[in-house]
Amino acid sequence: MALWFAALLGLVQGLTEFLPISSTAHLAITGAVFKQGDPGAAFTAIIQLGSLAAVIAYFARDLFVDLPRAMFKDPSSPEGRLPFLIIVGSIPIVVAGLLLKRYIEGEARNLYVIAASLVIVGLVMAVIDRRGAGNRTMLDLGYTDALLLGLAQACALVPGVSRSGSTICMALALGLTRPDAARFSFLLGIPAIAGAGFLQLKEALSAAGPLPLAPLVIGTAVAAVSSYASIAWLLKWLGSHRLLPFAIYRVAVGLIVAGLTLAGWLVASA
Questions:
Q1: Closest Cα to residue 42, out of 242, 199, 262, 234?
Q2: How far is the C-alpha of 220 from the C-alpha of 226, rounded, in Å?
């Protein structure tokens, strides 16, 4: 893989991992547009470690100070319960990921699947956004809420769905404010991103060197910087804006990708 293309993929990964538009879809589309092919699930998951580093850095105080302190002080308090909610919410994607691994890394990485996912979730997002946000915060979440958010996150194993998109939509449907919906989505994504990234990294390192080191390093570094900027921007944006622009963007990109693929301009699968 050319270094410039690895850097481009890192930028795309970073800018789209936490926006509700699907990083996996955009990485696959980028590969098709530049005639470089699908970068693959392994490369995608590994450069996600850059996004993981960014979200950990952004929420460092929450992760290493506030949440542990609250958890040890009073695990039954709303603040002390949050780490357990994240654990419960992470179970569905772990189970689904192990059961559907071959499909996720194979047939699902098809531009028709990606286009359909972009459009369908975009329409769902528009409906939920029209309904509006509630006034609940993360501290109002219970274990049933966490499980529902986890199931939504598991749907994002299908390329094009978007992990942040599915969880933010579910959080809004559960009555959370937009900033808290995004904040919990990002925190819930940490175990999922870490699990996928490290699992794929292990598999890549045990294989006969299919992924050169330099492109991975460059892609991951660029992903880290752009992810941090993306997190900061989205949290600020959702303080006073809605999700409708993302919904419109998803539907438009999905229709364009489907049309170009049908016309033969893009190859449906690598």
A1: 199
A2: 10
